[in-house]
Amino acid sequence: HGGLVDITALAGESIMATKHSGVSINGSVHVGQYFDLREPIELGERLVLHGRVTKVAEEPRGHVVTCTFEAERPDGTVPLLMERTSLRIAQEATKGPLGKGTAREPEREAMRLESTKQLQPANVAEYSIEAENLIHSDAAFAREFGFRAPIAGGLMAVRMMMEVLAQRGPIDQLQMSVRFRRPMFWDEVLEIRSQGTAAMPEAFAVFQANGKVVNDAVVHALNGQRA
Predict the structure, then answer these.
(1) What pLDDT, on a 0 to 100 scale, did the predictor assign at position 200?
(2) Are 201 and 150 in contact (CB under 8 A)?
(3) Using alpha carbons only, what angle is made at residue 137 by residues 15 and 5, rounded to the nearest 5 degrees?
């Protein structure tokens, strides 16, 4: 985004940190992400990412793991806080939605269409190749966990939302919560929609062609303004 870092990339680094610590993430599915960007981060800055597991809870499909991360500058300031929630699926688990199924679905026609994206299997696999989670690239492996095809990394949808915000101006401060509600299969056509004003959207949603929501997000604050 010009000379500023798309903070989605740092969320990706938090996933890589799990791998570097020696914990396999094969079969793990990203179900939630929170960002608290306090100051803009410029390209070329040196940051140290600190993280810890803050909660582990059982649920019908496996275990939900919550981790928090801080991106720290050499002077000790922390321009970015993040929280990631992931579901480690048990292979014997039954199929079902990845998010909270009781949550209200956004109304597609009430939201403004921002863009349409055609996912490409090769690009989806390449996006997550460093993390070595075969659920994004191996069809047979994805079927073992109940998916008809490999699923796109949830952060791909976040990048689509960040693209919309960045096109409206620099993102200096941002508080945003994202839920990954359903799998995005690697060959789907997706719609990115927003709701609110053009200058300050209150919400995003990513829809499948059948009208179901795969991801949604709430912008709590943008550049000092609260939604």
Answers:
(1) 67
(2) no
(3) 40
